[in-house]
Amino acid sequence: MKIYPTQNIRNVVLLGSPKSGKTTLVETMLYEGKVIDRRGSVEAKTTVSDNTEIEQIYQRSIYPTLLYTEFMDNKLNIIDTPGSDDFVGGVISAFKVADSGILVVNAQQGVEVGTEIFARYADKHKKPLVIGVNQLDHEKANWDSTIESLKQAFGNKVVLIQYPIETGPGFNAFIDVSKMKMYRFKDDNGTREELDIPADQRATAEELHAKLAEMAAENDESLMEIFFEKGELSDEEIRKGLRLGLAKTDIMPVFCLSAKKDIGVKRIMEFLINVCPTPDMSKHLLKDGTEIACDSNGPLSIFIYKTALEQHLGEVSYFRVMSGKLKEGDDITNPETGTKERVSIIYAVAGKKKEKLTEIVAGDIGCTVKLKSVKTNQTLNGGNKEWVFQPIQFPPSKFRTAIKAKVEKDEEKLGEILNKANAEDPTIVIEYSKELKQTILSGQGEHHINILKWHLTNTHKIEIDLFPPKIPYRETITKVAVADYRHKKQSGGAGQFGEVHLLIEPVVEGVPANNKFKVDGKEVVLNVKGKEEYPLDWGGKLEYYNCIVGGAIDARFMPAILKGVMEKMEEGPLTGSYARDIRVFVYDGKMHPVDSNEISFKLAGRNAFKEAFKKAGPKIMEPIYNVEVMVPSDCMGDVMSDLQNRRAMIEGMSSEKGFEVLKARVPLAELHKYSTTLSSLTSGRATFTMKYAEYQQVPAEVQDKLLKDYEASEKEE
Ligand SMILES: Nc1nc2c(ncn2[C@@H]2O[C@H](COP(=O)(O)OP(=O)(O)OP(=O)(O)O)[C@@H](O)[C@H]2O)c(=O)[nH]1
Ligand SMILES: [Mg+2]
Q1: N or C terminus of the chain: which is more exposed, having fewer CB within 10 Å?
Q2: Quick one: 334 and 449 in the same domain?
């Protein structure tokens, strides 16, 4: 393949709801670009893009796939992304390297929740979108309602470049109101005729053309002047206006497509080349905020946006050249780790098909293999450059599960593989929770995790169990209580003796500790001699007061008592969860001249604390999450009643362009597999986000159940 200069490269991400036809579209684009001479299909598991075993099993895209195609002396780097919300990480990483996108909309459905979500992400990343209304050949295709839903969702950004003469199986022609031509297709292989617009379509076409010219003109003053003067713009002027409007993400031009029948595909490719932004138009910032120009004569720098383990190749690193030129054999350095890497080979990529390049320039996307230690989101520079590009910001996870190898000897290997999985897909997060004593695996949804499970079983031959993760409950108290405990042991030689009297009360933020208390109706006054305050790793704090009078307990035993209390705070008296926000006043006790030692006081402190805790109106607290659900209006009732069954507090509802946005606070304990339920309630048409909010006391019946469960599990052990 020849070396394409920056101006002749277009980087385009394909986005859209599941099954809208992205993979089929890129297949046809490769065919039009003569990268392949026969088109495969998703059903036959023969597409270039969905080339992994797991994608073929599920007949859907799972990974973002890079595919080049050559057209009109330009190189198009297309990134085909998965439509399912579970794999959104791949879409987000594609935004980092693409300069524009095609939002593929299924003409059977019109705008779906997924369409809207991806458009939002594109907006956030300031990437212009072209809309491809696909599947117009399908008998259920509905052009008018699709356009209506597009206008509802994206308002007056939507501008028609084309419209079909007929939809359904008879779809074989559309009017292009930019070129003012009709394109008619003779076969399913993209053979087209360019014809004059038939008389009965002229009025509609002219009206839409005028609208298009006006929208194009609005992006530039000189165009505006021409438009007012002549009431018209030339083809070239319309292109210029659209190019400006697209770059500002002010317009979303709409095209007609049947990816399957190769109708409209060539025309959208021409538009990508003639009008869509070139790589040097995107802004790329370093971590320190400096903007780096995409200049092939600048210093060499590449950004790794994806890594993957591929058959026959090993570790493959996908990158965009951010600046300069990368040549075969170049040495580049990772400024963050100091690691030097040699690029022994460079490939242009069309899925599995890799075409060797001797050089690749700024703005182009490719891959290399066998780098020593490169991860997604890293920058590699030539010379001594210290450039580090801003990393891709992956969305927080919304599905948690505990994971364990079925046989213990696999645990170590499992850990290694999971760490690698995270390096390849940063939306897979692994964390060992010391508190829960579980390895917690998080991802974007159950399907996301199941794909990983499939790889563990099939690729790595490790059998695992997935099970609901424990909830990080907290324990606290609600009132004052006292307790005393004598630890005494007389066995053979030296005995053990320690007696501790203590009082506990809840820490209430903003209410300082007092020395007067009411305990069981009696007034108690303590003589506070010292106070220590300990913020706790798991949130909240412990305040520890020394109120000993008359030397009842030696000062040297006070740390041991604290240690005992702390041990019980770490394994709360109710359910073994962390305790928080408690004041402990040690006010009396007894020593033995010979038998008292630290261990005795630690045990006495621990047990006195435990007894007092149980009398002090103990409560279990649970983590509450802010949940925001985006749901089509017709599913609202089901989603709402499901949330209510999850002890949700509905906080608000608002309508947004055909969807309802529901805000609620939901206990984490009730959110297990929420993404799966939501998906089945709405046939995958809804989405949600969740974010930790605060700890709240659990309702009485939940507390009772937790206490019983804990008791039972203690007995078992
Ligand atoms: N009739 C018709 N069917 C199409 C067209 N494009 C795609 N399909 C079919 O729609 C289904 C989904 O197509 P894909 O290309 O896998 O869709 P996708 O958007 O890549 O789906 P995900 O990867 O799951 O997000 C397949 O059965 C295709 O054959 C089209 O233009 N017309
Ligand atoms: Mg696909």
Answers
A1: C
A2: no
In the predicted model, is pLDDT for residue 366 greater than 70? yes
Give me ligand 1 centre to Cα 106, in Å.
9
Report which secondary-structure segment, H or E, holds 29: helix 22-32
For residue 485, how far is its CA from the centre of ligand 1 (angstroms)? 72
Distances, alpha carbon 531 to alpha carbons 542, 558, 581, in Å: 11, 12, 15
3-state secondary structure (DSSP) of residue 700:
helix
At residue 594, the 3 state secondary structure works out as coil
Q: What are phi and psi of 157, to 5 degrees?
A: -70, -25
Q: Is the CB of 47 under 6 A from ligand 1?
A: no
Q: What percent of the chain has pLDDT over 70?
A: 99
Pairing of strands 9-15, 100-106: parallel
Q: Give the pair of three-digit tokens for residue 565.
A: 């209390």
Q: Which residue's CA is the closest to the ligand 1 atom numbered 11?
A: 19
- Report the C-alpha gap between 33 and 13 in whole angstroms: 17
Predicted TM-score of the model (pTM): 0.86
Atom of ligand 1 nearest to the CA of 16: 19
Say whether both 122 and 257 belong to one domain.
yes
Length of the chain: 717
Residue nearest atom 14 of ligand 1, based on CA coordinates: 21
C-beta of 24 in contact with ligand 1 (< 6 A): yes
Nearest residue by C-alpha to atom 8 in ligand 1: 21
Question: 189-200: per-residue pLDDT in tens?
Answer: 999 999 999 999
81 alpha carbon – ligand 2 mean position (Å)? 6
Q: Which atom of ligand 1 is found nearest the CA of 42? A: 16
Same domain, 330 and 447: no
> Which residues keep their CB under 5 angstroms from ion ligand 2?
22-23, 61
Asked whether residue 658 carries a pLDDT value surpassing 80, the answer given is no
- Backbone torsions φ then ψ of 522, nearest 5 degrees: -105, 145
Strands 129-134 and 252-256 turn out to be parallel
Q: Which of 510, 474, 497 is nearest to 554 (CA)?
A: 497
Residue 491 has pLDDT above 80, yes or no: no
- For residues 97 and 191, state if they share a domain: yes
DSSP string, 284-330: EEBTTS-EE---TTS--EEEEEEEEEETTTEEEEEEEEEESEEETT-
Q: What is the model's pLDDT at position 495?
A: 87
- How many domains are contained in the chain? 5
Check residue 593 and give its pLDDT: 87
Residues 504 and 363 placed together within one structural domain of the fold = no
Q: What per-residue confidence (pLDDT) applies to 112?
A: 87
Instruction: Provide the pLDDT for residue 446.
Output: 92
Q: Which of 15, 17, 22, 24 to mutate to test the pocket of ligand 1 (most atoms within 8 A of CB)?
A: 24
The range of the structural domain enclosing residue 17 comes to 6-197+249-281
Q: Tell whether 394 is covered by a domain.
A: no
* Helix, coil or strand: residue 104: strand
Q: Tell me, yes or no, whether 403 and 414 share the same domain.
A: yes
105 shares a domain with 17: yes
CA geometry: angle at 618 spanning 615 and 621, to 5°?
175
Are residues 576 and 659 both part of a single domain? no
Ligand 1 in reach of 22 Cβ (< 6 A): yes
Mean pLDDT of the chain, nearest integer:
94
